[in-house]
Amino acid sequence: MHDLAPHLLAFLFAAAFLAGFIDSIAGGGGMITIPAMLIAGIPPLETLGTNKLQSLFGSGSASIAYARRGHVNLVEQLPMAALAMIGGGLGAALATIVPGDVLKVALPFFLIAIALYFGLKPNISDTDQTRRMTPFLFGLIFVPLIGFYDGVFGPGTGSFFMLGFVTLAGFGVLKATAHTKFLNFGSNVGGFIVFGLYGVILWKVGLVMGVGQFAGAQVGSRFAMKNGAKIIKPLLVVTCIALAIKLLADPGHPVRIWLGW
Q: What is the DSSP letter of 150?
């Protein structure tokens, strides 16, 4: 398992590049990398652990790109990133205790709601709006909560951070995207540490995919900074809907089981 065939590594590299591109703009890269690793024959637990390693490269790469262009101050955001890291670590550690079926049932509908919000609300742009929550409360409550979710389950984390920054912190879309990436990096660090302690990370696979993630995130973040809300909004809507469909298409999804589909 640690020595995948070269063509599988090439496949995973390409999947990671695409995931890094999409994730740096709208989030949702995990819906590409996790199925890709499963297709390559990597067991589920090792897939989750390795995904955290390669995700570090993507979120870190995008954070650097946005910071260099002045869209986010990484030093000022360190306390929030630390809280996201703590949340991510706790989520990963408690993943076996949290009722996963509840998350699986609710997540597609949350993602559809996010897609509708960004798709139908006309005044969402790159301009900052009215703030509904102080930065202190936002960092203390919302950030670790989403970080915890990232550690427990993961898909859609970037979209949830985006929604929070736009609706609660009053950020414009591009500014929200830039800040989301560093918090996502923090929650990835927390999950990575826990999975690393459990010894379920495939380092060779994770590093190969990490290079792909880094490159994809560089391209994606530059694309987002050039086009702003006019590309971020539709890609976020499409990503959320695609992820919701993918989750509901799983024959083992609780909703399908309950409905007898």
A: H
Indicate the helix (H) or strand (E) that contains 179.
helix 173-198
Are 168 and 123 in contact, with CB atoms under 8 Å apart? no
> Residue 19 contacts by C-beta under 8 Å, 6 or more apart in sequence?
29, 30, 32, 33, 58, 212, 213, 216
- Report residue 228 as tokens: 């702003």
The pLDDT tens digits of the residues spanning 157-202 come to 888 898 889 888 888 888 888 899 999 999 999 999 998 998 889 9
Backbone angles phi, psi at 124, to 5 degrees: -85, 120
DSSP 203-259: HHHHHHHHHHHHHHHHHHHHHHHHHTHHHHHHHHHHHHHHHHHHHHH-TT-HHHHHH
* Residue range 23-67, pLDDT digits in tens: 888 777 877 888 888 888 888 778 888 999 999 999 999 999 999
pTM value is 0.81
Distance CA 116, CA 257 (A): 26
